[in-house]
Amino acid sequence: MEIVVYLAGQIHDDWREQVEQGAREKNLPLSFVGPQTNHDRSDNIGEEILGKQPSSYYKDDAASDINNFRTQVLMQKSDIVIALFGEQYKQWNTAMDVSTAISLNKPTIIVRPASLIHPLKELSNKANVTVETIEQALDVVSYIYE
Amino acid sequence: MEIVVYLAGQIHDDWREQVEQGAREKNLPLSFVGPQTNHDRSDNIGEEILGKQPSSYYKDDAASDINNFRTQVLMQKSDIVIALFGEQYKQWNTAMDVSTAISLNKPTIIVRPASLIHPLKELSNKANVTVETIEQALDVVSYIYE
Amino acid sequence: MEIVVYLAGQIHDDWREQVEQGAREKNLPLSFVGPQTNHDRSDNIGEEILGKQPSSYYKDDAASDINNFRTQVLMQKSDIVIALFGEQYKQWNTAMDVSTAISLNKPTIIVRPASLIHPLKELSNKANVTVETIEQALDVVSYIYE
Amino acid sequence: MEIVVYLAGQIHDDWREQVEQGAREKNLPLSFVGPQTNHDRSDNIGEEILGKQPSSYYKDDAASDINNFRTQVLMQKSDIVIALFGEQYKQWNTAMDVSTAISLNKPTIIVRPASLIHPLKELSNKANVTVETIEQALDVVSYIYE
Amino acid sequence: MEIVVYLAGQIHDDWREQVEQGAREKNLPLSFVGPQTNHDRSDNIGEEILGKQPSSYYKDDAASDINNFRTQVLMQKSDIVIALFGEQYKQWNTAMDVSTAISLNKPTIIVRPASLIHPLKELSNKANVTVETIEQALDVVSYIYE
Amino acid sequence: MEIVVYLAGQIHDDWREQVEQGAREKNLPLSFVGPQTNHDRSDNIGEEILGKQPSSYYKDDAASDINNFRTQVLMQKSDIVIALFGEQYKQWNTAMDVSTAISLNKPTIIVRPASLIHPLKELSNKANVTVETIEQALDVVSYIYE
Amino acid sequence: MEIVVYLAGQIHDDWREQVEQGAREKNLPLSFVGPQTNHDRSDNIGEEILGKQPSSYYKDDAASDINNFRTQVLMQKSDIVIALFGEQYKQWNTAMDVSTAISLNKPTIIVRPASLIHPLKELSNKANVTVETIEQALDVVSYIYE
Amino acid sequence: MEIVVYLAGQIHDDWREQVEQGAREKNLPLSFVGPQTNHDRSDNIGEEILGKQPSSYYKDDAASDINNFRTQVLMQKSDIVIALFGEQYKQWNTAMDVSTAISLNKPTIIVRPASLIHPLKELSNKANVTVETIEQALDVVSYIYE
Questions:
Q1: Gyration radius (Cα) of chain A, Å
Q2: Which InterPro entries match (chains A, B, C, D, E, F, G, H) (predicted)?
Q3: Domain annotation covers residue H57
Q4: How many angstroms separate the CA atoms of A52 and A30, rounded?
Q5: What's the confidence (pLDDT) of residue A90?
Q6: ipTM of the complex
Q7: Which stretch of B9-13, D27-31, D62-66, E41-45 has the lowest confidence by average pLDDT?
Q8: Could you give the CA distance from residue A73 to residue B129 in angstroms, rounded to a whole number?
Q9: Is the pLDDT of residue H90 over 90?
Q10: In terms of residue numbers, what domain contains D82?
Q11: Does residue C52 form part of some domain?
């Protein structure tokens, strides 16, 4: 049984590759989708398609149109969502994606360091499972196939 | 990841072929569906299947039954909608298809000339993305695969 | 049984007052809501609240945010929708409101002149009832109370 | 027409009172609900009802059960959501509440300072309206009644 | 607790009055809605509002628009549905109303004579309760208030 | 594009075979599902699986459990519904299936003789298309592929 | 803000009265609904309305029709659900009511003794809050009004 | 037509293997999913992934997160649910799974011994079919393919 996983969350390190490699090592029949991980491309996509905008506000608005379009297409194609929160950055997009996934009844796993237990407590409470490492998240997904 | 695209909008020029050719050039794994583009066939389909109607009003009503049936089947099979508004014609069907798509949570792109910014502003606001050219619409779809 | 009616459609004449007066004459327990009917206010609301925008494109976008907010609040409070299409103007907002109402299962009446039968045929087909005069629309609503 | 407003967002200043006072000054028929604004009470509610928990992790989990229960009850009773993001704090609950409101089709206004335009761009894009001041948010709500 | 009851079913005898009188005798806080029970008015309503139609087929189509509009408004206002099938007539509207009510999660009671057990067996199976007399239907509703 | 068609309606003649043969002749990529067409098997299925019931009432109830289970599974797998009403029999199951299909947003075609125009007028009005012959129903489905 | 509470769970003791009295003491604006608490009436309601059934199996089936009708009406009228599990009895109805409430997005509190932690762990995990005493459940509801 | 079956219910005997073997003997194109059937693994999964918890209460809570995640993923992939209740154990998870399945419109079969008719009567009433043996459940599924 093939499962499509949306990998929400920060785009500043290689955590998605770690998830994908872990899945290969466990031979899990997973395929992965997620946001644009090239940060500059993500920020500039509005202007790159629609042309120069009057200010950074309008540049951001144009980019968010297209990033939200992408996320909506790919999350609808997904069976589960894994969302990673890191210690830096505001990551409101991650919170938004997790809440949207939960509202869509997508089974959802949050990965976050212990230092974020308190600020994420209500969000963790609504997600199915919260873990601290990528390895644990894959253990949870792997458990489906046992 | 295969994506089915419903191409809503005017049926008086070859814009759908341009979209399809653009997708082939970009090697995007898209398949396309849309309304009946033979205008006469679309207007006459009610009488061609159900027989002569008492007046043009009833002819129109019979045709719309069957055109709406077709649209509903194909839009439900689609993952995203691209809708093109041209400068001529009333194109209320296009507005209807876009609104229906948005209500069904189908990610939606509007293509319209700058001259239509004002009359389409509320509809553009509800769609995910609004662009001015077919090339831009394909850039948005292509971005999903980056 | 009190019924709330959303009056979608053109804002360039006094048709809403005719509806409201007709309802009073028939003693129907209806209350009415609808879009901002002051056209300038509707077009300028974005800048009037958010301040000067860089161009008319951005002015329109800001206005549509707030007009769509208003429509969503009021349509959700409504039990039925009456939408009037006139012979002038593109009226894509009216088509958008009708389609949204139908998707939300709001019983919907379209009022349109005979000259618009053909371009509105698919939308009429999805609405519950299409009539030509305000008087007829009120007759349909009145029928609920017989 | 009475409208119930859920005031999501930070609980560290008196912004909710400012909203309520502004509504009174404008004579808007609004009633307001929102999260527990006593921060200590909100953090301790789990232990205060369920008793001492083994560690702060479990104390947080117990509190979030009850805070989420409260939010779910009150948001379902609401017609619209106004969410304020300040410059401090992570405010993932606010992002969660906004996303949930949008998924539930609750018309939503975000209030945030210009400094947060970039990190909130995708969330702003999904909300109906984003403004910078409480006064502007009330102007948007007031527009419903014009 | 006030409950609104939609009384679906045949319009050829006074069974609705029997239900209403029974409810009064039991002091049940029920209010009742239902289809147009004047058969001629129901059949002619299309022509009476829209004018003469080209044939009985179009007359029927016009009437059904308006009858379905009425039913949709009133069923959405209802908490429960009681549907009576008699031994005569095809009563496909009754079957349609019962199925629609069940799909809308409206708790539903069917009243039918023993002679109709077999042809109604699948519909009875989907309804909450099937009884043989109006008295029994009122006993079921009355049980809510015990 | 493969389409699954649920063939609702009477089980007393070979109309389903005519539909299937017509589809083969037109080379339409359709597959067909439908109710149990062996009438005795359909009526007896409850007792054949669950054993002798106390009377025909309970026999009918047991059969309807299993027939409704079958219909629910197969209709959920279907993209469109074609329902045939004949001149004999009460066919309330057909009306039930059509209404359920419409409530589930399955595009629906009714086939009925002209003699049934009047009693089926409200149901026809809610279905997408109503035709008089199997050939016409296939023409409507075929139109999707043009 | 008035809140309607459905009190699911065992009907063998006076726990509902304790809840209602506790709410009065706290001056909470709650109203309460729930299942038939007269056990004999609940078991016999099928025969009491529909007449003698062939065996206890059919008596149970007839009663459950009417009990499920009652529960569906009252749960739809409720804003929150409080469900109490005691140490005796199988109480599958309570588990059913809790699951149904959760699926309907009704905020839900489970009350159960510590001895039932293990067998109820998955159900508790899906409910919003689980407590051990009626007093605690009322504290949770009371927290909404702080 | 391939059908995916979720096998809810007790995990203390080999009934799932009996179902699977019966399906093979009948050549039914079914595939099967279900809960973790290794009881110790199911009870310990929380600690095995997340580490030692402070007490059995927290161990149970951690396990239920992950078991509910697994169930949600697999039930969403399923077309029908077969749930077996045995005479021992409380089996509230089974009742929860059946109720959830029914709320999700998954066609559902309950298998239970005659001794459980009374305590399961309301749940049986909401399921599509209730039988006493695995053989009968397979007969019901097999009937889909006739």
A1: 16
A2: YtoQ_family_protein
A3: no
A4: 39
A5: 80
A6: 0.95
A7: B9-13
A8: 13
A9: no
A10: 3-34+78-144
A11: no
Q: Do chains D and G touch (3 or more CB pairs under 8 A)?
A: yes
> What mean pLDDT, rounded, does chain B reach?
96
Looking at the structure of chain B, the number of domains it has is 1
Give the three-class secondary structure for D34.
coil
For residues D123 and D105, give the distance between their C-alpha atoms in angstroms, rounded to a whole number: 14
In angstroms, what separates the C-alpha of G7 from chain H's closest C-alpha? 17
- The neighbours of chain G, by the rule of 3 or more Cβ pairs under 8 Å, are D, E, F, H
- Cβ distance B58 to E55 less than 8 Å, yes or no, reads no
Helix B92-103 × helix C92-103 angle, to 10°: 40
Distance CA A128, CA E134 (A): 48
The crossing angle, in degrees rounded to 10, of helices D134-144 and C39-50 is 170
User: In this structure, are residues E42 and E35 in contact, taking their beta carbons and an 8 Å threshold?
Assistant: yes
Find tokens 């297209």 and name the residue: A66
pLDDT (tens digit per residue) in A100-113: 999 999 999 999 99
Domain membership of residue D130 (yes or no) is yes
Does F63 reside within a domain? no
Distance from the Cα of H107 to chain F's closest Cα (Å) equals: 6
Exposed, middle or buried, G87 (CB in 10 Å: 0-12/13-18/19+)?
A: exposed
- Distance of residue H24 Cα from the nearest chain A Cα, in angstroms: 19
User: In b/e form, how buried is each residue of D14-52, taking b as 16+ CB within 10 angstroms?
Assistant: ebbebbbebbeeeebebebbbbbbeeeebbebbeebbee
Spell out a b/e string for F31-67, using b for 16 or more CB atoms within 10 Å of the CB, else e. Answer: ebbbbbbeeeebbebbeebbeebeeebbbbbbbbbbb
Contact F128, F109 (CB under 8 A): yes
Give every residue of chain A whose pLDDT is below 70, as ranges: none
G32 DSSP β-pair partners: G5
Tokens, residue C53: 């925008």
Residue of F nearest to B32 (CA): F1
D and E: touch, per 3+ CB pairs < 8 A? no
Q: What is the DSSP letter of C127?
A: S
Distance from CA of F100 to the nearest CA of E (A): 6
What CATH number does residue B123 fall under?
A: 3.40.50.450
Q: Which of B48, B49, B73 sits opposite F107 (nearest CB)?
A: B73
**Between vectors from CA G117 to CA H104 and to CA G135, what angle results, nearest 5°?**
95
Q: What is the pLDDT of residues C101-143, one digit of tens each?
A: 999 999 999 999 999 999 999 999 999 999 999 999 999 999 9
Is D95:D127 a contact under the CB 8 Å cutoff? Answer: no
What is the tens place of the pLDDT at every residue in G32-44? Answer: 999 999 999 999 9
SS3 A14: coil
CA distances from A49 to A46, B129, B143, H106 (A): 6, 11, 10, 43
pLDDT in tens, F59-73: 999 999 999 999 999
According to the model, what pLDDT value does residue H138 have?
Answer: 98
Which of D140, D141, D142, D145 best probes binding to C when mutated, by most C CB atoms within 10 angstroms? D140
Tell me the residue type at H78: S
pTM of the model: 0.96
Q: What is the DSSP string of chain G?
A: --EEEEEEE--SSSHHHHHHHHHHHTT--EEEE-S---HHHHHHHHHHHH---SSHHHHHHHHHHHHHHHHHHHHHT-SEEEEE--SSS--HHHHHHHHHHHHTT--EEEE--GGGTTTTHHHHHHSSEEESSHHHHHHHHHHTT-
Task: Summarize pLDDT for B46-96 with one digit per residue, the tens.
Answer: 999 999 999 999 999 999 999 999 999 999 999 999 999 998 878 999 999
C-alpha C48: how far from chain center:
23
Mutating which of B50, B65, B125, B130 best tests the C interface, going by the most C Cβ atoms within 10 A? B125
Tell which of G39, G99, G106 to mutate to test the H interface (max H CBs under 10 Å): G99
pLDDT digits (tens, 9 = 90+) for A88-104: 878 999 999 999 999 99
| Residues F46, F63 contacting (CB under 8 angstroms) | yes
